[in-house]
Amino acid sequence: MNFLKAFVEDCRYYDRNQVELKSILKNVNLKNKRVIDIGAGIGRLSFPLSKYAKEIVALDNDKRFVKYYKKHKKKNLIFINKDASKYLNAEKQFDIFIIAWPTINFKFINLLKKSVLKDSVIIFITCDNTSDFETIVDKLELFDKEKFKNDIMNKKKFIKKIEKNFKLIKKEKIKTEYLYPNKKIALKNIKNYLKLWFNITLKKKAQLRLIKIIDDHTLKNNQIKFEEKIFFMILK
């Protein structure tokens, strides 16, 4: 499966009840607002939010998404295939900044500080690395356990730093999930996820571990459920 198809499939089974989307709409008024979704991917949040906003810029530096946005056009949604540092330095007129599931980069906070307007709202969404789904890689024993611990610590440090540099309006933990219809689809999509994000191809021993993990998350109706705990923050 190629990158784009794997990305679409991963999003297909994540947050099917749109918990993240509903949390945004509950807490922020998008009417007549210009919104930028930084690191938008396939627009998992950009497309549904475009129903409520004046305009949404879906920003992502990966050129492999260009084809997807050309196929799924929407009048008030613009896809920009540029690096955030270059684009935000040139274009600063946004009311709402959405940063969902970013790669942790401490330099990004300074970039945000230079880009937000006085009344701009920042919506920051990231996973809790101790969630069911996030611990899969650790349970497969593919990396040094210290690396997993360091990832958790870096996430905590980043959250503290963003709170220090902006006014925290709201912070809460929300819960959502990956929900697969059966074990076969779960195995296929998790393997694609590992390849997509970590460039990992499972060998036999690791695949058997993954099957056991999937078994442990199988519901009575044979669906597979991995819970995700999410940090949801609003800042100014």
Outline the structure in words:
The chain is α/β, with parallel strands linked by helices and 236 residues long. It has a single domain (17-177, 229-235), classed as Vaccinia Virus protein VP39 (Rossmann fold), CATH 3.40.50. It contains ten helices and seven strands. It is globular, with a radius of gyration of 18 Å. The mean pLDDT is 94.
Question: What is this structure's SSE topology?
Answer:
Layout: H1 3-12, H2 19-27, E1 34-38, H3 46-49, E2 55-59, H4 66-71, E3 77-80, H5 84-90, E4 96-100, H6 107-115, E5 121-127, H7 136-139, H8 145-165, E6 168-180, H9 183-198, H10 204-216, E7 224-235
Parallel strand pairs: 1-2, 1-4, 2-3, 4-5
Antiparallel strand pairs: 5-7, 6-7
Helix pairs in contact: 1-9
Summary, kept brief:
With 236 residues, the protein is an alpha/beta fold.
* Helix proportion range: 40-55%
Number of contiguous helices:
10
Strand order across the largest sheet: 3-2-1-4-5-7-6
CATH class: Alpha Beta
Number of domains: 1
Largest sheet: 7 strands, mixed
Strand percentage: 15-25%
Order of helices and strands: HHEHEHEHEHEHHEHHE
Shape: globular
User: CATH topology, what is it called?
Assistant: Rossmann fold
Q: Which parts are unreliable, with pLDDT below 50 for 5 consecutive residues or more?
A: none
State the fourth-level CATH superfamily: Vaccinia Virus protein VP39
What is the CATH-assigned architecture? 3-Layer(aba) Sandwich
Cα(first) to Cα(last) distance is 40 Å
Number of strands: 7
